[in-house]
Design goal:
about 140 residues, mainly alpha, Ferritin, binds fe (ii) ion
Length: about 140
């Protein structure tokens, strides 16, 4: 609702958004039903893209390419912002939320991977590096 107040989309734009959400809702319902890990991972990447978009938005505000009006009252109440908060403060708060959503969804996807397939396992060491290390170790032993 915050960005509806900020951007004030037309009725046509609102209709397009609602139609897109209806299509996505049904797609996502079935994705989650049959592939919940992929569903969480996909949302995590969407959230990452949101973080990047809000970062670009902040850069535009800071460069003066986008106005920085006072924050809407609904945003001040929701994010408990200062009474004189601006759009920039709202974008910072929203970006922090999106980063949290990204991390939670990656966590959920990791949990669904299960213990037999740890996603955070260290990368395998290439065989050549192991050989180099063992040679270096044998040289150290000889010295
Ligand atoms: Fe989000």
């Amino acid at each position: 609702m915050t960005f509806v107040q900020v951007a004030q989309p037309t009725i046509l734009e609102r209709g397009i958004i609602m139609l897109t959400q209806a299509v996505f809702y049904n797609f996502y319902f079935f994705l989650y039903l049959f592939a919940p890990k992929t569903a969480h991972r996909m949302v995590a990447y969407f959230e990452e893209e949101a973080v990047n978009s809000y970062t670009n938005y902040l850069a535009d505000i800071d460069a003066g390419r986008h106005p920085n009006p006072p924050a809407p009252e609904i945003a001040i109440k929701y994010w408990d912002l200062a009474p004189d908060a601006t759009l920039r403060d709202v974008v910072l708060a929203v970006r922090a939320d999106e980063a949290g959503h990204r991390d939670r969804n990656h966590d959920f996807a990791d949990q669904l991977v299960g213990p037999s397939e740890p996603s955070s396992a260290p990368a395998a060491i290439p065989e050549a590096a192991v050989e180099t290390e063992s040679k270096a170790g044998s040289r150290r032993d000889a010295a």
